[in-house]
Amino acid sequence: MKLNLLRKLLQHQSKAFTLIEAVISLSIFCTLISVSIYGLQNYRQQIEEKQTINQFKVNWHNMLNYSYLNKRRTTFFYEYDTNTMTFNDYTRSGKFSQEIKLPKTLKSNRGHDITINVSENGANSPRTIELKSTATHRIYHYAIQMMWGELVEK
């Protein structure tokens, strides 16, 4: 009788996880989730930077076209403290005004404000704009060509 009871106890296996198994699987799951969230945040920052750079290029060309077609002076202004780029009609009439708030991962490499004026015919003096990324550790270097204002990425 005791022998049969012992056999039944040995053959009876639990169909649930033990506490140790549950803790180990939970820790593996949490580690995988935390690694993927970190990678997702980096990816999101890189995408945000690319969108901001593309928005800067588009607004720059729109400002040049506005100056040339409307025979009005325009101004590009980068404010270092607030990390914003502003594209304005020189008279600030509001007819042409765009503002870009740069992400926290992008900052000017120069460390000061930048102002670039574009004349009525779209001409400007040569300038350089550098933005440093803390997410990708890349320096975006843009040279603005003299007179016709074309952006050249280096």
Largest β-sheet summary:
4 strands, antiparallel
Helix content: 40-55%
- End-to-end CA span: 88 Å
| Mean residue pLDDT | 86
Summarize the helix and strand pattern as letters: HHEEEEEEEE
Low-pLDDT windows of residues? none
What fraction strand?
A: 25-35%
Number of strand segments: 8
Biggest sheet, spatial arrangement of strands: 3-2-1-5
Shape: rod-shaped
Structural class comes to alpha+beta
What is the number of helices? 2
The rounded Rg comes to 30 Å
Topology, pairings included?
Blueprint: H1 2-11, H2 19-70, E1 74-79, E2 84-89, E3 97-101, E4 106-108, E5 114-118, E6 127-133, E7 139-144, E8 151-153
Antiparallel strand pairs: 1-2, 1-5, 2-3, 4-6, 6-7, 7-8
Overview of this protein structure:
The protein is of the alpha+beta class and 154 residues long. The protein is built from 2 helices and 8 strands. It has helices at 2-11, 19-70; strands at 74-79, 84-89, 97-101, 106-108, 114-118, 127-133, 139-144, 151-153. A hairpin with a 4-residue loop joins strand 1 (74-79) and strand 2 (84-89). The chain is rod-shaped, with a radius of gyration of 30 Å. The chain starts with a helix and ends with a strand. The model has no long low-confidence stretch (mean pLDDT 86).
